[in-house]
Amino acid sequence: MAREFKDSLFRFIFGSAANFGKLYFWAAKKELPKNSKPYKTTKFLTSVFANDIAFTTPDDRLIIFFEHQSTNNPNMALRCCLYYFDFVLNLIKRDKKKVIKLFSSSL
Question: What's the Cα-to-Cα distance from 3 to each of 11, 51, 79, 97, rounded to whole Å?
Fold first, then answer.
């Protein structure tokens, strides 16, 4: 099966909130929060990570499912970091006047 068809099938099956919720429940053993929305990455990340599925929750958490990799991929950690940076940049753009605490001030 051609790679683009496998990628499309993964996104087709789990791209809806209902099916994503079932996958999330299977993996995390808890319900996907209500009003979770598909997360759209920037144009650059969308073209690079077209086969990933991500949702955001009402309390600004990012949940990502990556398609299974058939070969070893040492760049998966970098891939997660790129999602995180994209997500934080979108939060900053959305809440320009609001201070976003990234780190705790207590030890």
Answer: 13, 10, 19, 43
